[in-house]
Structures
1.
Amino acid sequence: MDCEICHGTRWKSVEIDGVERLVRCDCWRSAVVDRLLDEAKIPKRYDHAELSTFKLKDGSSPPEAFRYASNFVAAFPVVDRGLLFYGPHGVGKTHLAVGILKEAIRSKGARGYFFETRDLLRLVRDTYNRSVDETEMSVLAPVLNADLLVLDDLGAEKSSEWVQETLGLVVNTRYNAKRATIFTSNLDDDLPNTDLRSFIYQLGARTRSRLKEMCHWVKIIGPDYRDVGIDATDREIADWEKNSPASPKNLPADARPKSMARARLKSRDSGTQYELNWSGGKAGSK
Ligand SMILES: [Zn+2]
């Protein structure tokens, strides 16, 4: 349907200092935003994921992770660092990353791109197959060139020399081009180098240290929203902590997250520790 202001011309006249000028109509802007959102390839399941729908259990103080997200969007594209949200499954890392991406597209017209790390690696690997028309570079180009990239679930793919090299290429290229990237990961940085769940084991020391240079590391800890529901009450969270097999309280001792106290000490050099109303972490330190 034609726009009521411009009747489909996409231009409207405004008076600036007494002179009539033509400027882009608002409908043009919203058409551009719609196209950019479409091109960002955000999976359908994140349709609801917005910064405005990101809720945290602790409503009292402005949550650190959310503040990083808002500040990033406000400053974009003049940002010297991206963000790396890490922590256990289901605490809202991808929700936050997608919310940032959408907001940067809407408010700044960013050319953004969302990719799950595992899918990206699969697509690149597929190009080695002769029956596939695309080249490695045609798959990687939008990832390397996007104004803002969300690379979701870093480290979900079983590590290998090839995986490390391919991810290293993405990370390095974006670093050198000063393009902002938002990563999410279930990996941990408080584990020994030999642990499968550590950044250094999965990505290699070089890429990990590059990530330290190019991102603010924000650790998010909390109950799994997919278990407790996004609007869980304190009571429900307490029940989850007590009863869920996924609760750190119920994990075997060697799989439990480090105590909050030790993690906080660590966070002085490794990024930001943000506690998502997670009393289980404190209890685990006893
Ligand atoms: Zn219009």
2.
Amino acid sequence: MLEVEGLVTTYGMIEALRGVTLTAREGLVTCILGPNGAGKTTLLYTIAGILRPRQGSVRFQGQDVTALTADRLVRRGLTLVPENRLVFPAMSVRENLLAGAYSRVGDGRAAGLADVERMYERFPILKARAGQLAGTLSGGEQQMLVVARALMGRPRLLMMDEPSLGLAPLVVEQIFEIIETLNREGITVLLVEQNARLALAIAHHAYLLEQGRVTFSGSPDAFGADEVISRAYLGTR
Ligand SMILES: Nc1ncnc2c1ncn2[C@@H]1O[C@H](COP(=O)(O)OP(=O)(O)OP(=O)(O)O)[C@@H](O)[C@H]1O
Ligand SMILES: [Mg+2]
């Protein structure tokens, strides 16, 4: 579904990505782990067309999309849920959801409204809060909303940047259950997480990113079996 090859992304003199190569296979959950400042967000931004790489390429569904803008990628089904939970604060929950359907040009309002109903079934809390201004939702509710809004665009590849950040354990569990369900329903997921245990529990393949480079690629089991890595990222001996 996604093939990233030799990505180099810089901020002025800072080389945040130093030649990153990875793939996300169709139908699977791929996770990217790594410490603060490793370049995880930079990587997702570069794939999503928000940042331009200095070198390297991004292929999506067999086509080179390196030069495409973010909105064109969304139209093709590549959607990023960024780390900071940007809802439209002065719009209601329902309006936020409808805004998520903007990429489906020509689909019509009825289809959008039907999908809003589907999101209410999947996220009952959003139905209860439908008329509330999104800026007044709790952190967990806002995370549900940004995921639901992303789903309104019917993505094929859903990229998520640290969905668990700052949320209570119970809410985190809910979010991860939702990610698993979405994946079972056919959405390919590329998940960035600092919470390695959680991510490995639902991932089929794991990458470790350190200082802008991929330093591990393998199954979640292999990740746990590597002594040095598991000591650093899983806190085990
Ligand atoms: N806008 C920017 N201007 C300059 N440097 C930046 C910018 N954004 C990120 N960086 C630098 O690029 C490197 C990678 O940052 P990035 O945000 O991608 O890391 P991350 O792995 O997502 O970290 P975290 O886990 O803290 O979210 C860091 O050294 C950071 O300081
Ligand atoms: Mg980040």
